[in-house]
Amino acid sequence: MVKSGLAELVAICDADSDVMGTIAQNDEFKALGVDISKIPFYSDYRKLLDDAKKLDIQAMTISTPDHVHAPVAIGAMKQGIHVYVQKPLVRTLWELDYFNKTARENGVITQMGNQGSSLDSMRRCTEVIQSGILGDVTEVHVWTNRPVWPQGKAVCDWVKSHPNGDGTTRKTLNWDAWLATAQNRPFLGEYGKDVKAYDPWKLGRNVYHRFTWRGFFDFGAGAFGDMACHTMNLAFRGLELGTVTDAECVKIEEKNDIAYPTKSVVRMTYAARDSKVRKGAKLPAVTLFWYDGFDEKNPGKSGNKPTASVMPNVVSSFGAVPDTGCYIRGTKGEVLMQDDYGAKCALKLGADKKFVDIFDHEAAKAVARTIPYCAGSSAVAGKSTVEMKGFAEGHYLEFLRAIRGEGEVYAQTHSRCFADIEYSIPQMEGILVGCIAQRVPGKLAWNCKTQKFLGNDAANALVKPYIREGWGF
User: Please, which residues bridge with residue 248 across strands?
Assistant: First the structure.
């Protein structure tokens, strides 16, 4: 954002002061001539928000652990500060409703950090699906190779075996500020050598900090909350999904009461709806299957994805089901997204022998352009590709330009941001309902209007987060 020339860095907040040293050594900041030592630093976001007017903060980017997204963003929006919030937007359904109301009441610009939203290929494939080229779509499969951090029963057992902590401390870490709204607990440093802590990305054996918090119910939203904002993006936009009516976890491994499972499959239903793009068109209810889980023998590979029998045409075209992606099947054709972000999409219609790249398929070429491309986000102009160098910059730039009143107003979000609340709120609602299904067994019926699960006290108890005294927002 600073590199764009449209923003000035006026403050940094992180519960770990060690981040300042990391930033100071960043080559891009050095090249920009930013003297990090002169930037005000805060370890407690509440103090930063108290000083927001003095600092003249007009916009904020929020990249904290998930449980702190809502407190910081809502506190900022109440002061009229525009917010770019990394995915997932928030961690709980109550926070989502609160975020939505606060953003609307204060008229601020928001952008969720599902950066693939700004890719040409994502936008083009969205247009093609919205054209109705696939016929009636009632089935979607979405999967990921995550988690790539420890979660499951081993995590649960380790934490329970150390109720008073493990005697470790981090001198640079403000643990109270890191916990923020979460229930107080002692700091835990690293898992013991006897603990099986899956770590394909070499994150280390940290229990909570850094980055390994994501698998905990109290701090993250697991693999579903982390990646569905990316991998469900195409299906949600292309099929104009909105209201989720129910969710059920139909497969689960290492279920426990502290951390998300190592593997799961969640089946969700999205209600039938009227198309907003094709006036008069009726879109049927959609059953969406979500898969998460890693392959212990092949680090970084999916250990829980749709079988070849679910998508035989994918296997005949590409040899195998990719390790992450989204598959959309209609009565007239199929779409396959072959990556996390929508950078590589392919289409197969009834008579086609194989899938064809979305930019090359003759039927897709005939579909009119309706969604403007985002400046700075073309991976490779006019070509679908898994190479995405620099694509995120366009997503950030769109946010900054929107604050300045520049750029297209998208018909589908009524905003200059393609991942503003009109899109991000309903997308997150379905994801968070799915996260609760991973914790509460049985088919959960969700009522969007009342913001409650029908007749399920256990599920309703998870709608609102625990908020520690002194950390309310």
Answer: 267
